[in-house]
Design the sequence.
């Protein structure tokens, strides 16, 4: 699929809380392998890390920064706090005749923790990363820029000093799941730019090997768009028996829908039989049927839709979007989703629905 607007794709997918929860599973980066010497993929990897991190941090900050005990050492004047560090007190005070001072070590309950310093550093890197993206081409990036500025105020009481070794070695209590996810992406951002904030503001000429699960990303993108129009009528990742789950159900129309990242379905039904078999199983799973509002003993045949990405008309080397298909995927609450779909020949109550991916401006 050519000319995908990944910024729009990531932003749409991540604005859905249920999708954002497992977005980390959609991609991976292998920093242990040699970098690929090309700048062709930086416009995918940098926005991916930037947008994912900002979305995670916005969610985290709704609950406030986590506090923790931090060990401090200080040469106090006329008072004692915690315990006296004998050796350092002798060296810094008694030997220099500063009898009024006492060198102490103590624990302080504060937001200025190692975890928060890492998040703050990654946030500053994110602000630099925005410089390599063209905000004028993507107005939604202005919102990201404003979010970063706003979030930095939440870190005013958090220090800036941190060593790269501390970033690599940090371990987070799994009870703090939101922190664990945000720190994981923060580590990737800092590692990506070799802990240099200057590099974060420059166009990169190499990328580490990385992968994106486009099937999953497409699934949550479609969900975000359907939810915008139909709201809670759309059920997402509805669980069935034997660890199965269907991508979507639409309760008012009694539809079972599954996305398939197979653009060839626009011109052919070759290989579609396996997908029909899979979705037929969902349509007979009593747990999914009950979520749809059907009686588990009902013998009523449920309508099923396979959703796939839009293909492009080909004219020589030029690829142009099929405007007819684009119009078919403009939804409204008043219009039934099934009206947008086309029947799959030879299979009763089975339909296909084209759903385009966002394309780069001017394409």
Sequence:
């Amino acid at each position: 699929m050519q000319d995908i607007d990944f910024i729009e794709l990531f932003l749409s997918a991540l604005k859905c809380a249920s999708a954002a929860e497992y977005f980390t599973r959609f991609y991976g980066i292998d920093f242990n392998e040699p970098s690929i010497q090309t700048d062709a993929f930086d416009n995918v990897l940098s926005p991916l890390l930037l947008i994912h991190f900002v979305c995670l941090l916005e969610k985290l900050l709704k609950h406030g920064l986590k506090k923790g005990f931090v060990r401090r050492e200080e040469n106090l004047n006329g008072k004692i706090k915690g315990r006296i560090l004998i050796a350092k007190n002798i060296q810094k005070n008694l030997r220099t005749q500063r009898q009024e001072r006492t060198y102490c070590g103590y624990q302080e309950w504060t937001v200025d923790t190692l975890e928060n310093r890492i998040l703050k550093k990654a946030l500053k890197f994110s602000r630099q990363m925005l410089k390599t993206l063209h905000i004028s081409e993507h107005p939604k990036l202005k919102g990201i820029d404003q979010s970063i500025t706003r979030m930095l105020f939440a870190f005013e009481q958090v220090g800036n000093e941190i060593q790269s070794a501390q970033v690599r070695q940090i371990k987070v209590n799994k009870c703090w799941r939101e922190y664990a996810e945000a720190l994981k992406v923060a580590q990737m951002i800092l590692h990506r730019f070799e802990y240099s904030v200057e590099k974060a503001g420059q166009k990169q000429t190499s990328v580490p090997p990385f992968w994106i699960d486009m099937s999953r990303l497409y699934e949550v993108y479609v969900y975000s768009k359907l939810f915008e129009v139909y709201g809670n009528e759309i059920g997402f990742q509805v669980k069935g028996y034997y660890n199965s789950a269907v991508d979507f159900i639409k309760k008012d129309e009694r539809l079972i829908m599954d996305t398939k990242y197979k653009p060839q379905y626009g011109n052919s039904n070759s290989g579609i039989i396996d997908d029909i078999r899979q979705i037929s199983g969902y349509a007979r799973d009593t747990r999914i049927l009950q979520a749809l509002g059907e009686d588990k003993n009902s013998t009523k045949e449920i309508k099923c839709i396979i959703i796939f990405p839009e293909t492009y008309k080909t004219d020589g080397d030029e690829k142009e979007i099929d405007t007819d298909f684009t119009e078919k995927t403009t939804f409204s609450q008043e219009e039934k989703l099934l009206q947008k779909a086309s029947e799959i020949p030879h299979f009763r109550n089975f339909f296909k629905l084209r759903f385009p991916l966002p394309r780069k401006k001017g394409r």
